[in-house]
Automatic annotation (TrEMBL):
Residues 22-32 have a biased composition (Low complexity). It comes from Cylindrotheca closterium. InterPro entries: DUF1415. This is DUF1415 domain-containing protein. Residues 20-43 are annotated as: Disordered. Pfam families: DUF1415 (PF07209).
Amino acid sequence: MIINRGISHRHFSTGDYILGESSSSSSSSSSSAANEDDEGKEDRKILEQSLDWLRRSVIGLSLCPFAEKPLMQQTLSMEVVHGSEQVEILASVLSECLRRQKRKGTSLIICPDLFPENFVAFLEITQMVEGLLDDWDLDGDLQVAHFHPKFEFDGSGDGIDNYTNRSPYPTLHILREEEVSVAVESISGDASKVWKRNVRLLETLEEKIGRPATEQVARGEFVDQEIQNQVEAILKGLKKS
């Protein structure tokens, strides 16, 4: 674990959970070690919740055509970054962007403390990230999508469509442009088809199983077998249409 000016971060891979972790100073006290153990447990909880959302919602509902391949090929890395200092968050994002520029796959930077209750404040950080990509001439190689527990499309209000981009924690998703282009080409080069299909799915779920159950499904939470059967039937119906 690396601790720097109040912010800490850990790297994970979906293959063995730990991708890379620096050791703490040998002069650390036993109480510090205990705290680090607690932090490690909390980070694993955050990771597991995010993986559940990714598997059950993003992949399980086919919300993103780009998501399953990196997970199956274990080219998806996940980094849990604590704190909300702008400079430190941006430094973590830049470091991962530079690493991802040279490696196939995608990265999720999960920021549990980065304004989880304030989407507008989080959105300001994402705009800084866009500026960072431009400043480092990375915008042609990488793109960063964002997810948030309170995500809201402009003008959408409390619409169910917001759940296409809602995640358990504030999250930044780093993707390689060339891999996105290949995925888009696989759906006839029209990424808007994904959005339209997802909205139709969520609206159908809301109509058939109700709003609370739809929100549970979209969050990647467990639902009873009857609800799960209905969800699977709706998914099959969408594939045929």
